[in-house]
Design brief:
It is a single chain. By secondary structure, the protein is of the alpha/beta class. It has one domain: P-loop containing nucleotide triphosphate hydrolases (Rossmann fold, 3-Layer(aba) Sandwich). The chain contains 7 helices and 10 strands. The strands form 2 sheets. It has a 6-stranded mixed beta sheet with strand order 6-7-8-3-9-10, sandwiched between helices. Helix 4 crosses helix 5 and helix 4 runs parallel beside helix 6. The longest helix is centred in the last third of the chain and has 15 residues. The mean pLDDT is 90.
Length: 236
């Protein structure tokens, strides 16, 4: 029973293929993976190996073809569309590689979106959003539009948006790829400090070997498979 209570994500035999003009491309070829509560798991490997597809399945953004992927004991594949949206809105925060901030909304308004989706009144949502922006070091930039922020600041807004509704699973796609070393290091420090608690889990897709040291475990992927899972970059 102990393993059941400590697993945030449990994937078994997950397959996903894409149809590219009549040709089938195997993106995931039978993935088995467990992500534990209270850990930072990194997925690493060459471009096109299936990392982003895997986290999209885990986050319920993409359906697998077969196999199971349970998040906190729930298999999103078998949920109706509305149930899946509600589950994701309550339990999952996603930091996209391109930030995906709405250009016409200021930082507070962007961060408040998950709360409004969850039924929080706009005034209270923006109050909570401002508080999280302060946590990520942007307390004075709440009224700034994305175009008025640096890349690192936009990434912090995206992280605040992923954290504001207190999700139990935070999924990040290349959070440091467009950042310089110092800014990337600061972003990872932030994720480690703010996102990780015993009742949460964090999974990060990255090519950035500079941040491998922040991981509790690292899963190396290649050609739609997980080659190995290790507890330090030296063992890759």
């Amino acid at each position: 029973m102990e393993a059941q209570t400590t697993a945030a994500v449990r994937c078994n035999g997950v397959f996903k293929t894409y149809d590219t003009g009549g040709d089938k491309v195997v993106a995931l070829g039978g993935i088995d993976l467990e992500i534990r509560m209270g850990e930072l798991m990194m997925l690493v490997g060459p471009s096109g190996c299936g990392k982003t597809t895997l986290i999209s399945v885990i986050a319920g953004i993409l359906d697998q073809d077969s196999g199971s992927c349970e998040v906190f004991g729930e298999d999103l594949w078998h949920m109706r569309s509305g149930e899946k949206l509600k589950f994701r809105a309550r339990n999952i925060g996603f930091v996209f590689q391109a930030y995906n901030l709405l250009p016409s909304l200021n930082a507070i308004e962007n961060v408040s979106i998950p709360l409004i989706i969850n039924g929080i009144k706009r005034h209270e949502a923006e109050r909570q959003a401002a508080k999280v922006l302060e946590q990520v070091g942007l307390g004075t930039r709440g009224k700034s539009l994305p175009s008025e922020l640096s890349g690192g600041q936009q990434q912090r807004v995206a992280i605040a948006r992923a954290l504001v509704h207190n999700p139990r699973l935070i999924v990040c796609d290349e959070p440091t790829s467009a950042l310089d070393h110092e800014t990337g290091h600061n972003v990872m420090e932030l994720l480690k400090q703010v996102a990780l608690h015993h009742d949460r889990a964090l999974v990060i897709v990255t090519h950035d070997s500079r941040i491998f040291g922040f991981a509790d475990r690292i899963a190396r992927m290649d050609d739609g498979h997980i080659d190995k899972v290790v507890d330090s970059a030296e063992k890759l």
